[in-house]
Amino acid sequence: MKKKKKQLLLTSFLCLCLLGQAQENQQKNAFAVSFGSPGLGLEYARKLTPKLNAKVVWHSLKIEDYEQEDVKVKDDLVDILANLEVSIIDLGIEYLPFKNSSFKLTAGIGILNKVNINGVVTYNEDIVFGDVIIINKDAGEIITDINWSGVAPYLGFGFGRAIPKKKLGIGIEFGSYFSSSPKVDLTATNLLESTTSQKENLQEALDEFKMIPRIQIRLAYKF
C-alpha cells in the first residue's frame, strides 16, 4: 500500500514538472513598464525565435510650466517658462546575439505623434536705455515652439530581455531616434517684436538636432 502511494506521489510530481515545463515553453509574451527620456512607456513583447523578440511600446511624457529664473543671455537676465509634451509609438525588434547573455541590440521605427517644446522668455529686470527705463513686464515676451514629427528610425543596445527568463525581469536600453529637423515657430510681443526676424537663424541652428536620445529602464512581466 505504501509502495503504491509512493508511486502515485512520484507520478503526480513528474506530471507537475512536465506541466510546469510546458507552461514555461508556452510563455512567449511579456508586458513591461518603462521610464526614461521618452517618458513613461507601456510595452507588449512577443518572442519570435530564441534570439529575436518583437515589441510595441507607447511612450508619453508631459511637463508643464517648468520655470528657470535668472538665465543669462549675453548681458541680460531672463526668465524661461517651458513646457514639454511627448507621445511616441515604437515598433521594434530586439536581437540577442549571445545565448547566455542578456545583452541585446534593438532597432525599429518611432511614430512621433507629438514631440513638442514650448518656451516663453521674459526679461528678469527692467531695461535701461540711457535715461529711459522700461519696466520688464512692458518689454514683452518671446515665444518659441519647436516640433518634431513623422516617422523616425531608431537604433540602440542594452541589457535585459524583452521576454525575461524568469517571471520578472529588469532591463536598461540606450539609443537614439534619427528624425528630420524640427519645425520652429517664433513670435514676440511689444518691444521684442523685432526678434521674430531671427526665426530663420533659430531654424538653421536647430537643423542639426536630428537625434532624439532614447534611454529607458524597464520592468517586464512574462506570461
How does this model look, in words?
Keywords: Signal. This is Outer membrane protein beta-barrel domain-containing protein. The protein is of the alpha+beta class and 223 residues long. The chain has one domain: Porin (Beta Barrel), CATH 2.40.160. It contains three helices and eleven strands. It has helices spanning 2-26, 136-139, 199-206; strands at 29-36, 39-49, 52-73, 76-95, 103-123, 127-129, 132-134, 141-159, 168-178, 183-188, 211-222. The strands form two sheets. It has an eight-stranded antiparallel barrel with strand order 1-2-3-4-5-8-9-11. Strands 6-7 form a two-stranded antiparallel sheet. The longest helix has 25 residues, at 2-26. The chain is elongated and about 80 Å long. The two termini are 40 Å apart.
Sequence of secondary-structure elements: HEEEEEEEHEEEHE
Q: pLDDT average, as an integer? A: 86
Tell me the number of structural domains: 1
Q: In the CATH classification, which architecture applies?
A: Beta Barrel
CA distance, first residue to last residue? 40 Å
Text of the CATH class: Mainly Beta
Q: Give the helix proportion (percent range).
A: 10-25%
Q: How much of the polypeptide forms β-strand, as a percent range?
A: over 45%
Q: Sheet with the most strands?
A: 8 strands, antiparallel, barrel
